[in-house]
Sequence to fold (246 residues):
Amino acid sequence: MTPIKGKVAVITGAGRGIGRAIAERFSEDGARLALVDLDEPNLKTTLGNIQKRGAEGITVTANISKPQEVLRMVDETVRRFGTIDILVNNAGIVRDQTLLKMTEENFDAVIAVNLKGVFLCGQACARVMVEKKYGKIVNISSSAWRGNFGQSNYSAAKAGVVGMTKTWALELAKHNINVNAVAPGFISTDMTATIPPEIREKMIAKIPLARAGEPSDVAQLVHFLASDDSSYIQGEVIGINGGFQM
Fold:
């Protein structure tokens, strides 16, 4: 018996990158998946990938910064699978600018998805979990929660995710719900592929393991935190950055 076989997992931002890798890793262990994203074509690709592995899943096209769309996401998941056991809050966007150049629009957009969206999904899924006295919530933060050049909005949102993680861990522990966060460093995704090669090389040079991380690296850690193998881990923020934070 695998640790998450048969469990129902909601994964936001599942259309590509880290979210897709998490979905594929979960599918290998027989989880039933609700794949959530705004990009419907990418979602269908992820769905096809997990179905090839024999997993069952649905796609939900939703903007997680909109309360009604989050409620629909939960309703569709429960209607199909009967419950929710796991939530992976992975969806996120970037709108990088330095402080003196950042527009209010770009600040608000990142906060809406990366912070408010995490709150809305966490609240809606936790209500299902509280009723059954069981659940796993894994929030994807970032090493940028400690501060990162040109990312006032992103860093603020990811620091907020850390604060919410610890708050939820305190509040939901009595309901047998584990809440933890993962803080990836430099990971090879479509988002980081736009970084100019010379800057990318400088960033990798600062990583003791001398390479960028892969989405599958993050997926392995999330899988562990979503399983009962991590049942005594609560309110933690686990970095996965090749030693960069040292």
